[in-house]
Amino acid sequence: MRTPIMPVPRLTSEQLDGLARDLDAVRDAVMADLGTPDAEYIRRLLRLQGRLELAGRALLYLGFLPPVWVAAVVCLAVSSLLNREEIGHNVLHGQYDWMGDPALSSQNVEWEGLASSKDWRRSHNYVHHTFTNVLGKDRDIGYGIMRVSPEQKWHPYYLGNGLYAALLMLLLDWGFALHDLEVDRLLRRERAWSENREIHRRLRRKIGVRVLREYVLFPALTGPFFFSTLAANACAKVLRDLWTSALIFCGHFPAGVVTFTEEELADEGRGHWYYRQLLGTANFDGGRLFQIMTGHLGHQIEHHLFPDMPSRRYPQIAPQVRAVCDKYGLPYNTGPLHRQFFSTWRSILRLSLPSRVVTRRGATSRRLGRLRVRTDTVGRR
């Protein structure tokens, strides 16, 4: 991604092995300590999310009184946000599989997002988290519609970079749903329509149920307040998507984030995988309530290192992860949300222009050269 030219340490094989041992030790200590407080946390959150949705639905029966309507929208937006991010996204990563509760099993839960859980586990949990920021492998680099790295070949289409980003923020949930269809690859004839048959079937079923529930059934249940309820449901989803997309962009697109080539994956071990996660992600600062409202995506670095660790533990281990980075001379990319957000949008807008127009100082990514490491341990979680 765009960042001023700065040296990025290249670790030796011995250092990468040490990095793996240090980070494994951080993970192992937390996973051995999981217990009642973690289980109570997710169950309290489920109860809170349900109560917020119930409150929002109940308020809509009072009609279109502006203060009441706004309160209903806020309740529904927060409920939907918690349901999709701090609950759904994290449960799908297997963060609570250790509890043995079928309702919190990554293989059983169907999350709030329009994309089916099965397809999301493949495209997000596997592809994105395994090949983080690898050009040509990680489809979350620009989501197939934006140019967010100077290594992506420029095309006049990218002059609309800012517009595409804005539309994605407004319609993020629909973007999630279409992401697995890989429409850009279909148009380039790199993917056959037949490959999407099962994905398309799951999408039709999931989208049909959600649209019927949110925009027909619930509005109809409020009788004469049908249209105010319809508008409230739509506004709640837009608010949720605007907030979530801002968080996601700030975790992978701001200055200082590194992209990689497929060649760098050859013989990749756990240490190099950890190394890529540290350099390919960014954090943003905030307190406890703020982190809950972000699904703990403010700790994107910790999440990418340990995606199956309960998210409430990320603030606890952040100082340890930072200390490990200091030990090996690696950057720990963090800062206020507004700074990361501004950096992200500056990158998106400048990379809409041809590479020859963008100055070297303003648009050079910290893409690393090939680094071979030993392969006796595989570092893909």
From TrEMBL:
Q: Which positions fall inside the Fatty acid desaturase domain?
A: 68-334
Please give the start and end residues of each transmembrane region. Answer: 58-82, 163-181, 211-232
- Look up the domain of life of the source: Bacteria
Q: Which cellular component, as a GO term, is one annotated location?
A: membrane
Q: Quick check: keyword Transmembrane helix in the entry?
A: yes
User: What are the UniProt keywords, alphabetically?
Assistant: Membrane, Transmembrane, Transmembrane helix
Q: MF terms per GO, please?
A: oxidoreductase activity, acting on paired donors, with oxidation of a pair of donors resulting in the reduction of molecular oxygen to two molecules of water
Q: Which Pfam families match?
A: FA_desaturase
A single Gene Ontology biological process assigned to it is: lipid biosynthetic process
The family database entries (InterPro entries) matched by this protein are listed as: FA_desaturase_dom, Fatty_acid_desaturase
Q: What is this protein called?
A: Fatty acid desaturase
Record the organism. Answer: Streptomyces poonensis
Per the UniProt record, the lineage of the source organism begins with: Bacteria, Bacillati, Actinomycetota, Actinomycetes, Kitasatosporales
